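INFO batch 0412 | record 1 of 1 | parsing
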Amino acid sequence: MPLPRTRGTALRQRLAELRGPDVPAKALDARALAALAANPGCRRRAILDGAGVNKAALASALGSPSVFGQSQFAFTRGNAFEAKVKADGGAELLRLVHEKLDRAAEPPAHARVPELTASGPEGRTARTALALREAAEARGEWTLLDHPMLALDVAGSPAFLEPDAVVVHPDGSWTVVEIKSFPMLDGSADPAKVGAAARQAAVYVLALERIAARLGAEPEGRAPDGAPAPRVRHRVLLVCPKDFSNLPTASAVDIRKQRAVTARQLARLTRIEEIADTLPDGTCFSPDLPAADLTAHVESVPATYAPECLSACELAFHCRARSRASGAVTSLGRSVRAELGGLTTVEDVLSAARGETGDPDDPAVAALRRAARLRAEALGHRAHEPQAAGHGPHEPHAFGQEAVVPCR
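INFO prediction complete | emitting C-alpha cells
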C-alpha cells in the first residue's frame, strides 16, 4: 500500500513537473538566493529557482541567451587572489580579521585549519558542522575554515552553500569572509558590487545561524560543555585587492539589513506552492518544449523586471524585452517606478504629462506636468535663438522628444 503524500512530498512532485520530465534540479547557491533577496517581488524567479529550473538553458530556448556570469579571465584572477590571501595557513587573512573586527583579542600568531574534505555535499556539510562545534568549544584559539560547506533549507530541499572562509574567533564567535577580485580604490569599492557581496554573505550568515541554533539547543541555550552557544557576527569581512595592486586589503561590512531582507524572502520562498497553485494545468518550463509553448508557460508567471536584473538573472534579456514591449515603467529602474506612483506604463506617464489623463492633485502627475511645462518653455526659448549650422529648432535633444522626468 503506497504511503500517502505529505505536503512536502506533493510540493516536490509539483516542482518536478514544472521542471519537466527527467530534468534534474539545478541546485540553488548563495548567489541565486542573494539575487532573490534583491528582487523579492519577482514571482517568476521565485518559482523557477524554487523548482530548480536551469534559467540559462531556459533563456537560450526562449531565444534570449544570457551573458550573465563571470568571465574565465576574471575567474582565474579571482582564484589567484584568493590563494594569495589564504597563503601560509591564512596568516594574512587572520591578520585582517583581527585588525578590522576583533582588536581586543590576542593577535593570531597561529591558527587551526581543520580538514573539511568528505564524500559529497552532505558529507562536507556534516564535517563542517563538526569542525565548527569543535572550534567553538576550543576557546582561546583562532580557527580558519577554508571553503566550508553549509546547508540551508529552501522550499523543502537543502541548498548547499560554500563561503570563501569562516573564521572562529578566540571567544567562539563566527565571522564570514568574502574574497572578491574587484579593487578597493582609496579604501572604497564599487557600491553595487559591495552590495551584491553583502547580500551573498547574508545567506551564509543565515546558514551559520542554523548551525549555531542547533549547538545552542541544549537547556538554557548553552553548548554541551557549558559554554555559551556560538554567536554569528553580523559584520562580515570583505577582502579585495588594494588599488591597482594584488595586495589584499579589507573592510568590515554590516549585513544586518541584507540578512533581514534575505530571511524574509526565504520565508516567502518556502510558500512557493501558493505561486504554483495559480499556474494553469500542464505548465512546464522544460527547454525541450516548442518555443511558442515555452514562452506562453513562462509568461503565465508574473515577473518584476528592473535594470539591476541584468547583472543577477539569466532571464533578464527576455524579461527586459517583454517589459519594454508592454511599456512598463519598471524597465526605467526602481527609483523611477517609485516616483511615478500609480502610473505603471510609459504611455500613462506621457498622457499625464500632456494633461490628458491623471488626477491633478496626484503629486506624481503634478510633477510631470510641471516638468512638461519647463521643457516646453526651454524648447520655445531655444527656437528663437540663432541656430548653429546643422542643428534646427525641431531637432530632438539628447534624451529624446518624449523624455519627461518628474522634478520635485
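INFO post-check: The radius of gyration is 26 Å.
INFO record closed
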